[in-house]
Design goal:
Elements lengths: L9 H7 L29 E6 L11 H7 L3 E5 L7 E6 L15 H18 L4 E6 L3 E8 L2 H13 L8 H9 L7 E6 L5 H13 L3 E8 L2 H4 L6 E4 L6 E4 L5 H22 L2 E6 L4 H21 L1
Parallel strand pairs: 3-4, 3-6, 6-7, 7-10
Antiparallel strand pairs: 1-2, 4-5, 8-9
Helix pairs in contact: 1-9, 3-4, 5-6
Length: 305
Amino acid sequence: MPPPRPYSDPDAVARISDLALRSRRLVEGAISGLHRSPFHGFNVEFAEYREYTPGEDLRRLDWRVFARSDRHYIKQYEEESNVRATFLVDASASMNYKGDRAALSKFDYASTLVVALSMLLTRQQDPVGLVLFDEKATTNVPPRATQAQVQLLAGMLQACRPGRKTELGGLLRSLGDQFRRRNMIVIVSDLLTDLDSLYQGLDRLRFGGHEVLLMQVLDRDELDLPFDGPTLFADMEGDEELFAEPRAFQRSYRAAMDDFLAEVRKASGSRGYDHVRFLTDEPLADALSRFLHARLESGRVDRRR
């Protein structure tokens, strides 16, 4: 059996503990004021219980539950559910790649990233959920805002063995009909998929009022093709193989990859999706802290405008 993959990065968690992942769009409800809400003063319905956090208003404790269980719980209402973040994690075969310069494969890096952000979001009292996908959704965990939920998501990621091909665009179109409430959809993938189909799926989500955040995870080998001498290249999501001399096409490959990355960045910006790129040879703590700082700063600029 393969060794366990804990997907815990204490350095990354510590570095982002004083930061926040805020929604840029209106979300349905806010408890702590992190996110703007379109609903104020409406009659709201009970949604679920969540554990009491020291410092919260004691008037919101459910004393009947305390009398039965000797534990402190808060009634959480629909209006108070903050942003609901659903992570869509690419579990296709290409995410298995790990170059010599990286400590983790793309999937392991992506999973560690998701667990760190899930811990941050649940501390903000924001529910987090998970969809694992390749050609279709293989796992779908609805959002909840508990520490037990983070443990559940980490366990799902640890049990996953990426395989098969990617078909992200069709998946997004189908998921767009399943999300009943507005979500922050965080897609964690190498985005090595059909881009036209991807954009159609993303547009469907945006039309439904969801906020989209693209987190593209790549290995540096995929950027610069560093191999010397005759090399056997294998399609990780197919059966094709190519024995070639990399130096013969390194320049054209790098140009094509630069064009691909520029296209994703430009299309994301013009359509209103946030896009950030992570490289697996970069310490996650540095990359994640830099991303959250930049997002918070750009949010301040937006509010000033």
